[in-house]
Amino acid sequence: MNDSNTTIDTLKEQVHQLCLRKGWGIEGVQNPQHVAMAMTVEMSELLEHFQWLNPEDVEGLMNGDDPERVAMIAEEFADVMMYGLQLTRTLGIDITRQVLRKIDIVDHRPPKPFNPKR
Ligand SMILES: [Mg+2]
Known about the structure:
By secondary structure, the chain is mostly helical. The protein contains five helices and no strands. The protein has a domain at 31-105: MazG-like (Helix Hairpins, Orthogonal Bundle), CATH 1.10.287. The chain is globular, with a radius of gyration of 17 Å. Residues 42, 45, 76, 79 line the site of magnesium ion (MG).
């Protein structure tokens, strides 16, 4: 399974099955308020891998010079994403619909004066 052959619904179900196996929440559904808070903790763990990096280090990440750090970032990203999948499943949010809606909103915003390339 990878991004090219897996639907978001499949991932939502995989995370739900994990919650059921672990006995988390009520019938595998955790309080969405708690899930949202946990998501920010995981986001902080992800950010920790970028803390105090200089621009050359970040460039190195993008060029594949630090695969170990990228693997740690990927793991924390997965934590964030898994909470996001749980949250959206619980609240009945269609991720694709919301992302496309948001792209449309941003697309129609006037440009900001400063827009860095990276
Ligand atoms: Mg984590």
